[in-house]
Amino acid sequence: MGFPSPSSRVRLPIAMNETFDPSLYNEDLAPIPPDQRQWGWINMATIWMGMVHNIVVYEAAAGLMALGFSAMECLEIVAVAYAILFVTMWFNARAGTRYGIPFCVLIRASFGTRGAQVPVLLRGFCAIFWFSVQAYAATQAIDAILGTVWPGWNAFSTPVLGMSLHRWGALALVWLLHGWVMNHGIERIGNFELVAGPLVIIVGACATGWALKVGHGLGPLFSTPSTLHGWAFVTAFAGGVTGMIGMWATFAVNIPDLSRFVRSQRDQAIGQAIGLPLTALIFTPMAIITTSATVLLFGHPIWNPVDLLLALGHPVVTVAGGAVIVLATLSVNVVANIMPACYDLINVLPRTLNFHRSSYLVLILGVAFMPWLWFSEAGSIFHILDIVSGLLGPVTGIMLADYFVLRREKLAVSELYRHDGRYEGKRGWGVPALISFVLGGLCAISGSVFPALSALNQISWFVGLGVSGVLYLALAWPQRTR
Predict the structure, then answer these.
(1) What digits encode the pLDDT tens for the residues 447-473?
(2) What are the angstrom distances between the C-alpha of 273 and each of 40, 83, 165, 266?
(3) Most confident segment among 306-320, 328-342, 398-412
(4) Which of 25, 103, 189, 240 is deepest in the core (most CB within 10 A)?
(5) CB-based contacts of 319: which residues, under 8 Å, 6+ apart?
(6) 444 in Cβ contact with 400 (< 8 Å)
(7) How far apart are CA 79 and CA 276, in angstroms?
(8) Is domain 33-370 given the CATH code 1.10.10.1100 in the classification?
(9) Which positions, given as ranges, span the membrane (predicted)?
């Protein structure tokens, strides 16, 4: 099945006599009719496989072990975090599958037709940030490949804006590669994911087999005991789970962007179950086992796959391995970052932007984030994750409370595209949702501002989700409409 390009599909009007506000509607935001949804569970599973396999997730195990967890405890954290993510995404995906609408349209039901821009812009900012960071991971791989094939490549070492000229050249190639994919149509990505997701698993399995041979077993990292006990273990475990959720907190919000293409609720549930928690539980031990072998070979752990390829010093391995990293990064970026960011930008300017124009805008904005500076400070990325999960937790809580409790899974879809419908709120602003979002977000990130409340950082996503969900129901229940 191909990945359907919204603007290239035949659109059926919701009703022949319906009129929509052009500031809320265009072909890319329109509902996808059930007979035009082509995805089955295999598509959903392979897309998640392609997204879970990326350098940031690979290196997340390093962050957990640096906190003092044993390898098995890392797997326990991953299992708990991804189980929670699966349940959240399974529920939040239902509206997309039932009505064929993206996140930026669905969120209007609670935040109002104008107020929806607040969570949409927040989500768009996060998507572009993650696109930028992931694309820079591919930049490192391209740089390693070119430096291996052509040694003179590394001679272009003059620094410009904190990065060498040869790295700038690699970055330009990666950005052009993303642009080439988007220019040829997003509809091809579905077929691409069917190959990319399983291929990365196969390559990872080969790397794991090599590591088991080098380490004559699981290696030293699996024999390293935990240094955390008692209450310190509990708080660190909670923080580890929250950090893992933070990596995907953005997608827990905009999962309807994908589920709108799926044929049935059964397909989206099975596909996510296979592609999300199951794949993560396979991929994480692969990362730990492979890194464990580097301790024996080089005397210290090497968690960055590109650094490992360079350390091995085998040209064929560097080129082939770098190509797989680029493939995996392209896979996660197009579906998890560029696509949601495009919808969010279109929602802001539906009269001006379409899917292709917004994709090029994402590429331009991605450079402005200067991702090479983030990679030099790994702790900064985890700090951003805490803040992001704290702010997007409230959005998730409001969405779940609104759709399942307040609306009982019933939406008047046509009114989501009009300012004068039941979802307008107060002059376009859903006051209960906005109040709940602000207060829930403040509670979630308060630990970053007030040292006495720092313990809340360990459960920021849960605090934001719970506080905002309950508060929203309390404020919106008296004025509820279906």
Answers:
(1) 777 777 877 878 888 999 999 999 999
(2) 13, 9, 43, 11
(3) 398-412
(4) 103
(5) 145, 148, 149
(6) no
(7) 10
(8) no
(9) 74-93, 128-153, 165-182, 194-212, 232-253, 274-299, 319-346, 358-375, 381-406, 427-453, 459-477
Q: What's the pTM value of the predicted model, to 2 decimals?
A: 0.86
pLDDT value, residue 4:
45
CB within 8 A of 26, min separation 6: which ones? 346, 350, 351, 354
Q: Are 464 and 390 in contact (CB under 8 A)?
A: yes
- Residue 368's CB: how many other CB atoms inside 10 A? 9
State the pLDDT at residue 63: 77
What is the rounded distance in angstroms from the CA atom of residue 4 to the CA atom of residue 62? 37
**Tokens 């709108």 belong to residue:** 260
Distances (CA, A) of 112 to 119, 124, 340, 350, 480: 11, 18, 20, 17, 13
Report the alpha-carbon distance of residue 393 to residue 66 in Å, rounded.
26
Contact 350, 104 (CB under 8 A): no
Residue 401 CA to residue 91 CA, distance in Å, equals 11
Q: Is the dihedral of CA 168, 171, 177, 178 positive or negative?
A: negative
- Determine how many CB atoms are found less than 10 A away from the CB of residue 350: 21
Given a contact cutoff of 8 angstroms between Cβ atoms, the answer to whether 193 and 336 are in contact is no
- If DSSP codes are grouped into helix, strand and coil, which group holds residue 93? coil
**CA distances for 362 relative to 113, 186, 304, angstroms:** 23, 14, 26
E-only strand ranges, 129-277:
159-160, 163-164
pLDDT, one tens digit per residue, over 45-86 is: 888 887 887 777 777 777 788 788 888 998 999 999 999 999
